[in-house]
Amino acid sequence: MVADRQTQRLPASEFERQRLAWSMGFHSWASYRAQLHRHRTNIHNQFRTILDAETSRPGDAEAAGLRLADLWKGKLTQSDAVKMLHTMGFAKAQSTPQLLRGFRQGRLYQAFSGVERDRLDRLMPRALQQAAEHAEAERAMAAFIGLIEAIGRRSVYPSLLIENPVALKQLLHLCAASPWISRHIGQHPVILDELLNPSVDIRTRTQRDLRIELEQQTGPGWK
Q1: H/E/C letters for each residue in the chain?
Q2: pTM of the entire predicted model
Q3: Which of 64, 106, 138, 196 lies 20 to 30 Å from 219 when distance is taken between CA atoms?
Q4: Distance between CA 115 and CA 122 in Å, rounded?
């Protein structure tokens, strides 16, 4: 935050370490580092539990995931792709395979490195699955692709969406609700950071909740 950089490295200098410890409410670097280690261990164990559970039960979920991956990569025939999309909930499924093909063959995707392509190959099937939950699934997917074309070179954001299903779900909800919102996020991708908060669901926010939050962030008397 100090240098406005995306990094996971702890500071090396004594001054920076002490400043970080104090900012987090600790009197010393040693006490902060010990608490950080406990949190890291807990998070690691949680991930290990989830990943072990997922790999131990392949079944229908894994088969559906593979089928979605084939759809995204263009391995299905047009008729099979349309049929699958209809089954998922895409009312106007005929245009979606062409939309996906256009993105795969476009300049952005073709310019990606192997790692960047692998990242999108993991993200797009999940986005299709989330888009299918909305009545305007095709519009949601088209808006999502437009957003990815705007932010795709910033690898941190596709990674963020892969690692945070809640953020991806919220984003697809916004894409389905308003193409303007998705374009605005594409122009200001830092907004995606707000989607990381799993306690925030825009569909359950009241006007009073929003007013209180705005006053907290901007001060009373905002217009």
Answers
A1: CCCCCCCCCCCCCHHHHHHHHHHCCCCCHHHHHHHHHHHHHHHHHHHHHHHHHHHHCCHHHHHHHHHHHHHHCCCCCHHHHHHHHHHHCCCCHHHHHHHHHHHHCCHHHHHCCHHHHHHHHHHHHHHHHHHCCCCCHHHHHHHHHHHHHHHCCCCHHHHHHHHCHHHHHHHHHHHHHCHHHHHHHHHCHHHHHHHHCCCCCHHHCCHHHHHHHHHHHHCCCCC
A2: 0.61
A3: 196
A4: 11
